[in-house]
Amino acid sequence: MALVTATVVVGLAGCGVPVDRSPSALSRRGIPFDLLDPNAPSTTATTSPIEVPVEIFLIGPTGHLVAVGRDVPVSAPNLATVLGALVAGPTDAEATAGLQSALTTQTTVLGADISGGVASVNLGGTFGQLVGPPQIQAVAQVVFTASALPGVTGVTFELEGQPVEVPVASGVQVPEANVAQFATLAPLAPGATH
Questions:
Q1: Burial level of 121, CB count in 10 A (0-12/13-18/19+)?
Q2: 83-95: per-residue pLDDT in tens?
Q3: Per-domain residue ranges of the chain
Q4: Pick from 96, 117, 83, 110: nearest CA to 164
């Protein structure tokens, strides 16, 4: 047994691994793989943001609104983010399928929040230049999109921070709009045609 132990000790000592009595600094030449390079690429993994599905409303070939899905970051599923997805308009595939938007991509969402069931939407850009049927369609798109969020029962509008009345489907100007006022533009039931 003593002979085996002595053989193991002698064998380990012969491995060539030096043993220091205390820590010592390595020379720069002794540090491998560019560990001293301050611009070395990071090895941390990047992660994609987690997204949640929301509904926006575009205008279908029949003139009725159509609900389509969008994914927004879970960290920001707020009304402003959802309206930003609406303003971005249809995807190429949706446009090919005949979906469109009365809201131009030059419309800007300046702010949006929900309080007591009422969504307050502050828009800018080209939104204030819309008139007639395109304005009614744009308002309907915003009202249906905002109302798809939990607890929203009505929508008020501001144009660059100034409260404005908006037209509903009948053409009447109202200070607060809701989905019932756009029944003629409401999404069709599956299988229905007009």
A1: buried
A2: 999 999 999 999 9
A3: 51-184
A4: 110
